[in-house]
Amino acid sequence: MPVWRSSAPRRSRRGRRETMPAMTSALRLGNPALRQFVRFGIVGVANTAVCLAVVWTAQGVLGVPVWLAGALGYGVAMVQSYLVNRNWTFAGGGTLPVGSQVVRFILVNIVMGTIFSVSTDLLAPQFGVRPASLIVIVPLTVLSFLATKFFVFGRGSRA
What we know:
74% helix; 3% strand; 2 domains; 2 strands; mainly alpha
């Protein structure tokens, strides 16, 4: 049954009730770019958790200065992000050599971090820092996904 025809609950092959068959069907059988985007989001959430865990542990438990704890957390999360995105989100890692991918990945992270910081700073006087950062993160996630998919891993990436 095509994804757009029904969103009514139905039973899965194992007899479980599916409450969102259209969505699960789209993720299973649908557009590979949508599947990659969802995976990219999952990796982003995991990276945030890893970054915070490293920062809080380094600073709170080990007494590392905050700036160094932040750099360590960001670095560990960035390595995780590259590895998981290369091997899971964009399975197979595309067509570019690994060295080129790493350089491009670092460049994309620097550019996205700069855009985030500048945009948040520009919007903060009007909205406050937290709302401004939430406003910025939505389009930046899409932009980061596209840059990672096409610039870092090249058109040959697949999921």
